Amino acid sequence: MTSAPDTPPADVPAAAATTTAAAAAAAADAAAAADSEEMVVNPWKVSGNVDYEKLVRDYGSKHISPELIERLERVTGHRAHRLLRRGVFFSHRDLEALLDAKERGDPVFLYTGRGPSSDSMHIGHLVPFIFTNHNIGQWSFPAIQAAPSFASSFPAIFGQDEAVFRRAFCLIPCAIDQDPYFRITRDVAPRLKYNKPSLLHAKFIPALQGFNTKMSASSQTSAIFLTDTPNQIKNKINKYAFSGGRMTVEEHRELGGDPDVDVAFNYLTYFLESDEELADIEKKYRSGEMLTGELKKICINVLTEFITEFQESRKKITDEMVSHIMTPRKLDYTFTMPPPKAESGDKKKSKKK
């Protein structure tokens, strides 16, 4: 396993240089412990070395293929979100069925949720929010968590027509450990004569210590929190973020770094918008042109800008605004459901066969 160069560039604080060996050793110990621990992934616990291929097999979900992403772009008329393009959302349930519904003109909606008033939120919690670009703001037990999967929970949007409820499709982006909740929902849906909600499963953002660990709200040194100051973000990345760099600058220049295990680079795959810039950083890091300290500096700048913007936006939220948002009311939105499209003769024959 590789580690950060002993001699970082001049723009990296001296504290980062002196803690590199200790941080690398701690990350190696954590990785070894995770490798020896049996993988557990469920809504209550995530431990061990997470094998996403095994989860797809065990859960019976499907990989999100390039062809499916291309179809999503055709149907929506928009470029796929960066978290889809880069494989952060890697698995799905019935996304094809939801795209079929979109093409028919049936109602389609997104659903996500979290308890945003908690100070223990970290950047890993933001993945569904980044994807949906809005915040429902309520966290509940499974029965209540399942209810918003059905259009009948939103009469202010979809009205009172049972026919609309039965044609509507819900898309739920979530971390894969939340899948068991919605498996129950999907089992119940046909009995209610509703469509099963479609799911997109996201990978976990790794803890600062490396890919075999998971960010924990109870550990200040494992995560970047949404309440962290710019100085705290800088210190955490420089001190704790596991590196794919080499042991010395000379070795790094000769052999290059490994972005596949580098935490700072991984965070950029979540938060850096430009695919071209990300590819350029990866190329320079692999070739040895870019050092660990330079990569970490880019990561620090991107995270600081993102979290500072989040904090400034949150300061503007008042109790009155929250009360207004959470009050059930008629929205300035009307959904008009088109009539079902008539099936072609070929499709009818195919169904009969």
From TrEMBL:
* Enzyme nomenclature, EC number: 6.1.1.2
Q: Which InterPro entries match?
A: aa-tRNA-synth_I_CS, aa-tRNA-synth_Ic, Rossmann-like_a/b/a_fold, Trp-tRNA-ligase
Q: Which domain of life is it from?
A: Eukaryota
**Keyword set, alphabetical order:** Aminoacyl-tRNA synthetase, ATP-binding, Ligase, Nucleotide-binding, Protein biosynthesis
User: One Pfam family of this protein, by short name?
Assistant: tRNA-synt_1b
* Enzyme's top EC category: ligase
Entry's Gene Ontology BP terms: tryptophanyl-tRNA aminoacylation
Any one annotated GO CC term: cytoplasm
Query: A Gene Ontology MF term for this entry?
Result: ATP binding
Q: Where is this region: Disordered?
A: 333-353
Q: Which family does it belong to?
A: Belongs to the class-I aminoacyl-tRNA synthetase family.
Protein name (database record): Tryptophan--tRNA ligase, cytoplasmic
User: From what organism does this protein derive?
Assistant: Fonticula alba (Slime mold)
